[in-house]
Design goal:
Layout: H1 4-24, H2 46-49, H3 51-73, H4 85-101, H5 127-130, H6 132-151, H7 155-176, H8 187-190, H9 194-202
């Protein structure tokens, strides 16, 4: 009978492998020889035919990675002993597998960030494609850090590995993810007459 660990890893590794396969055929093949050409918009080139779907897929992957990172991030404070070690090791292994797939979900056709758009199609910045090797290396380094966390022994080592993994994730986000900008309030927002609006609603 498969353990929970094996089931989760089989699912994630299988999903990551599928993502690698789909994304790899989405990008322009490397010019390894004179006959290398750009792909046509066939049904299997999802980076060309379904760029928005690929953007959505990588966003979902990122959000689920952050959920897996939550318990790992919480152990950095030494006030309490590290608990649920087995679960956090499993989370780290899954995060590491996901991070290996991440760069392959960024074909050039998904470089659709528009700084003027209130809700851009993607918050991945064009810098990814200007220096893709750096982006790729950061993702692989973070994946390696996740593996180090999964293999760390003892509370102190796990806390240190947790900080290193978070730093690796943040380094990539700092360079290649649009920074969060809080909503801007206008003078009209402060001058809005809530009492009058509520009275109007009561009389309807």
């Amino acid at each position: 009978m498969k353990t929970e660990r094996n089931i989760v890893l089989s699912f994630v590794l299988g999903t990551s492998a599928m993502a690698l396969t789909l994304a790899a055929v989405s990008a322009t093949p490397a010019a390894t020889n004179a006959s290398a050409t750009a792909p046509s918009a066939g049904p299997g080139w999802t980076g060309l035919t379904r760029p928005q779907d690929m953007i959505h897929a990588r966003l979902e992957l990122m959000e689920h990675m952050e959920e897996l990172m939550l318990p790992i991030d919480t152990i950095t404070l030494p006030s309490q002993p590290v608990r649920n070690v087995a679960q956090m090791r499993l989370n780290a292994e899954v995060v590491g597998a996901m991070l290996q797939a991440v760069p392959h979900l960024f074909p050039p056709t998904t470089n659709l960030y528009d700084p003027k758009a209130q809700v851009p199609a993607t918050i991945a910045l064009p810098g990814i494609w200007k220096n893709f090797d750096s982006f790729y290396s950061l993702a692989q380094a973070a994946s390696h850090s996740a593996e180090e966390f999964a293999n760390a022994k003892g509370d102190a080592a796990m806390r240190a590995a947790s900080l290193k993994l978070r730093a690796g994730c943040d380094a990539c986000h700092e360079l290649y993810l649009r920074k969060y900008e809080p909503p801007k309030f206008l003078p009209s927002d402060y001058q809005f007459d809530f009492d009058a609006a509520l009275k109007s609603m009561k009389h309807k």
